C-alpha cells in the first residue's frame, strides 16, 4: 500500500544583513502599506504582549547612523490613529515568506533578547476590488 502524505510547507526565513536593512525595509513598506497588522512583543520575564492588532500598517524604517541600530514600525493613516513602535539596539531582522493565505511577517530581535513580530494580512485581503465592466468616460 503506497500512501503519500503531504508535509506542510515551512515558510522560508531570510535573515537580513545590516547593510540590507534600509533598502529592503523601504521595499517592504511599499509592498505592504495599508495591510492590516498585528504587532507582538516577546520579552523574557514579561512574556508575550500584543502591542496592537488590526491596525493599518504605515511603514517600517531603520536608523543605522553612528552605529545605532533602531527600527521604527508605524501604524495608522490619520493623526488620531497614528502609533509608532521603536525597537532599540536591533541585532537581527528576519523576513518570513508568506505562505498560503497569510501575509508578510517581519521579526526583529533586540540586543536584550526581546523579539518583536509584525504580522500583516494578505495583500488580497485589503486590496480594493477592480470595478467590473466600468470604463472611464471623458
State the CATH class. Answer: Mainly Beta
CATH topology: Protein Yojf, Chain: A
| Percent range of helical residues | 10-25%
Overall geometry comes to globular
- What is the architecture at the second tier of CATH? Distorted Sandwich
Contiguous runs where pLDDT drops below 50 for at least 5 residues: none
Radius of gyration: 18 Å
Number of contiguous helices: 2
Instruction: List the secondary-structure elements in sequence, H or E.
Output: EHEEEEEEEH
Mean model confidence by pLDDT: 84
Please summarize the sheet with the most strands: 8 strands, antiparallel
Percent of sequence in beta strands? 35-45%
Write the layout of secondary structure elements.
Blueprint: E1 13-16, H1 21-32, E2 36-43, E3 47-63, E4 70-75, E5 83-87, E6 90-96, E7 105-110, E8 115-120, H2 123-126
Antiparallel strand pairs: 1-6, 2-3, 2-8, 3-4, 4-5, 6-7, 7-8
Describe this structure as you would to a colleague.
- With 138 residues, the chain is mainly β.
- It has one domain (13-123): Protein Yojf, Chain: A.
- Helix content is 12%, strand content 43%.
- The protein contains two helices and eight strands.
- The chain has helices spanning 21-32, 123-126; strands at residues 13-16, 36-43, 47-63, 70-75, 83-87, 90-96, 105-110, 115-120.
- It has an eight-stranded antiparallel sheet.
- A hairpin with an 8-residue loop joins β6 and β7 (105-110).
- The longest helix is centred in the N-terminal third of the chain and has 12 residues, at 21-32.
- It is globular, with a radius of gyration of 18 Å.
Amino acid at each position: 500500500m503506497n500512501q503519500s502524505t503531504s508535509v506542510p510547507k515551512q515558510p522560508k526565513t531570510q535573515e537580513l544583513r545590516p547593510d540590507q536593512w534600509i533598502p529592503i525595509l523601504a521595499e517592504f513598506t511599499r509592498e505592504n502599506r495599508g495591510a492590516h497588522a498585528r504587532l507582538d512583543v516577546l520579552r523574557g520575564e514579561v512574556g508575550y504582549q500584543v502591542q496592537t492588532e488590526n491596525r493599518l500598517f504605515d511603514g517600517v524604517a531603520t536608523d543605522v547612523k553612528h552605529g545605532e541600530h533602531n527600527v521604527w514600525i508605524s501604524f495608522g493613516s490619520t493623526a488620531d490613529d497614528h502609533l509608532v513602535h521603536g525597537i532599540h539596539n536591533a541585532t537581527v531582522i528576519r523576513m518570513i515568506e508568506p505562505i498560503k493565505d497569510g501575509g508578510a511577517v517581519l521579526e526583529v530581535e533586540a540586543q536584550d533578547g526581546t523579539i518583536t513580530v509584525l504580522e500583516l494580512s494578505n495583500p488580497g485581503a485589503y486590496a480594493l476590488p477592480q470595478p467590473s465592466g466600468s470604463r472611464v468616460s471623458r
